[in-house]
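Q: What does the assembly look like in three dimensions?
Context provided by user:
Components: two
Sequences:
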Amino acid sequence: MSIAEIQQTEGRGTPALRRFLRKQSVLGRFLRKRSGVAGLVMLVVPLVAGLCAPLLVWIEGQDPSTLHTDLLDPDGGRPLGAFGGVSADHWLGVIPVTGVDLFAQIVYGIRSSLFIAFGASILSIAFAAVLGTATGYFGGWLNAVAGRVIDFMFGFPGLMFVIAIMAIVPPEMPRGLVLVLVLAFFGWIVPARIIGAQAGAINARAFVEAARATGAPPWQIIRREMLPHLFGLVVVLFAMSLPGNVSVVAGLSFLGVGLRGDVPDLGKLLSDSLSWIYSGADVWYMLFPGAVVFLIVFGATLAGDALRDVLDVRTEDAA
Amino acid sequence: MPDPVLQVEDLCVSFTSGGVTADVVRDLSVSLDGGRTLAVVGESGSGKTITGRAIMRLLPRGASARGRIVVAGREMLSADERELRRARGFDVAMVFQDSMSALSPYLDVGAHIAQAVRLHNPSVTRRAARARAVEMLDRVGIPEPADAVRRFPHEFSGGMRQRAMIAMALVNRPALLIADEPTTALDVTVQAQILALLRELQREYGMAMLLISHDFGVVGSAADDVLVLYAGRQAEYGSLRDIFDQPAHPYTAGLRAATPRLDARLHTGGERTRLRAIPGAPTSLRDAGPGCAFAPRCGLADQVGERCVVEAPLPTVRPTSEGGGLHLAACHLDRLPAPQEVAR
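A: Here is the predicted structure of the complete assembly.
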């Protein structure tokens, strides 16, 4: 065989199959990945439940504030019945001591805490991605300035600051929105440094140099050459920042500077249930909201992984 | 005579780090006409790659260039970003050594070429640019170009990738092509094909080519003129024949003696000879003294004496063979002794 013939046969595969795969949209390829679909379901079902909380609670025939002390053991206040008082009326049982419907608390809790966590994560990771890419690409004085600002923020007692801010927020301001902004303000620091380092490494790679040698302007280099490489990292950082924000919201609520006491909140449920799981008196109080948080975080990670694989042209055939 | 496509005058490139400045290229002057190939040869660290980058103004951070570089009538060192972007890929294009890392893994081959087209002709539609990419892939000898254009770099073999990169570089018909070790990462049979392709396209487009290489075999089969760099300085410049047959600088002679030749037996009367290595390591750019940079490794420095250590030799005109053009060498010795005595 001549060299040309060898080259011709090499890496050809079956062109028809490849063309078919490539024609499929990103969505189509995503839907063929089982882990991705599972992750998406795990992520979307609780979120939809949160969105439709009033409707679901109306179907259940409960509300998130009525006390049902008749369902509690008068001695110690733990719910009567199996699984923390699960019944046709109370799908996930009731909360000890107060007897409030747990299902209603959870779906309303998804609304407040998850939407705060999502908002804060989206804002902070988006800002980190923009800043990190810019410092990685332009380097020089921008990198130096951003680096010092990040150093300063690292040394800044963020949690104290958040507590102080939340304590003085006037009551007429929407606390949820303030929480989103405050969490986002402290959430971009570590991701920005990680993305910046990665972007700097990509910027030094030969294909970026080659694009520059073709006369590509900065914006095009960032968009076409750098962003595809950073996408996976951004997805992972987002999936990692989400549970962190959920727990910070919970912690703040626990300290009394988060959401108002009467607003249902997954984090608050979890922290309130701590003593009940320590004593073993009502493990279901923590398991149900914990499972919801777990589902959402795990689902976000799975879906993020799958999305990254689907967008990576090198693994497309391995679907 | 038309102006040369590439004109470099007194080019100095220096790196500054930690307050110390080191010249990696010093006082380099060379010019190159359209249709000609100039090979830049030297060991690693001799400044050959940096020279190529300086011409494109793609120097790494911390490096600065002085002097004058004119490409197709455009002053590169004083040009602003906009002008540079217009020149890169249009007046002067580059082919890189490692085609795997020089093509983005996330873009198909067609996107690379189409991007190069549209960057310099914004009025061309996406579809037309893709069509141009197919044409160009066909031109560089990639089979089934209409299918290949949709493939990704990792699906290509090394030789095909290098062809694709040549297509990307030449799609706008630049006046000057800088080929930085274009065949080093390839195996020998593919090397020859790629060199032949480059020569062919050069003839067709009438472009000038700056071939950066450390391989005398590649140089011998592709170059018209040769520039030998040592420690960032011009050691010798001349036509291929002059450099090969009558080197006037001990370093060039040493490089020749270190290169395997098929005709070696003829030259030595059938006797087997060992390849000779140049003793020592390349001179550090930082503690370069006032003398000739090659003096510490030079087998002939004794013959000249102190002058080699205290005075840097300037390029002076040397005898040329018939039709050889300019021949310059930077050595205090007027004439090298016979080849056998050159290397210690």
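Follow-up: The two ends of chain A are 34 Å apart (CA to CA).
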